[in-house]
Amino acid sequence: MTDRPALLIMQRHLAPLTAFLESEWTVYRFWEGPPVEAQAEIRALVVAGEFLLDKHLIETLPKLQLIACFTSGHDGIDVDWCRARGLPVTHAPGVNHEDVADHALGLIIAARRQIGAGDRALRAGGWTAESKLITPSLKDQRVGVVGLGAIGAAVARRAEAMRMTVRWWGPREKDSPWPRAGSLLELARDSDILVVACKADESNRGLVSREVIEALGPQGLLVNVARGQLVDEDALIAALKDGRLGQAALDVFEAEPTEAARWAGVPNTVLTPHTGGATTEAVQGMLMLLIQNLKAAFAGEPLKTPVT
After folding, report:
1. Do 178 and 47 sit in the same domain of this protein?
2. How many other CB atoms sit within 10 Å of the CB of residue 116?
3. High-pLDDT (> 90) share of the chain, %
4. pLDDT digits (tens, 9 = 90+) for 43-59
5. Distance CA 11, CA 29 (A)
6. Which residues are catalytic?
7. Is 168 helix (H, G, I), strand (E, B) or coil?
8. CATH of the domain at 293
């Protein structure tokens, strides 16, 4: 047993946080099977917000006083359920939205200008004097942004700077320099490129449905830098295979890590392993906020970035 506050890191990919936290706190890792006596010590869970919160586990931790979300997104956390039990939730807002928007633009360029295909062709000896890969210009491409929050607005600014035209859709009106479509289906129908950048929760699972995918059409490009569950992934794969959708560029997937076999033979895709917001600077910012929130919670001070 220890007098130092104890933390439980829930997801294996957050293991590197241990080195930064254990100088001040006792750190347990869920996947290593902490000893039973640790249940009486743990005062904070450190989690990645895209993973479902283990409510049963929470109910077995009598001293738990904080859910500390390392990420900005917290869609896996039932905040109302936590609040009803007196458990505040913190997260890391405003840290990596510009990096995610950079990644979205990179996916657009990689897909439309066939950068990956060109690389593979050159390495395979396919570049000859007679061959030339012809791709469309980004100029005047119509970009539809789904969700005009921090990420969506940052994507819109970049698209406009790249000479593309921008519209957006979200469930609520807001002041914006770009016009809002009447519906998601209308936005998809009138876009060459549809960028999914909205928050995810159970109410909008499968938001980008087969109907939306087909409205984007055989020349359309679907980009997702938000959450995988926002897109009907089975419908997306089927549409890519039979040509009802032109291209997809994805950084997020319905199940993560996604199985490589699931994408074998799926044409016209650019796939990255959920790295859109994973820059050195962003991770440092998230770590700083995590530590500040933990210190505040254990000192009985106002939290730095609570989920409100």
Report:
1. no
2. 14
3. 96
4. 999 999 999 999 999 99
5. 8
6. 227, 256, 274
7. strand
8. 3.40.50.720
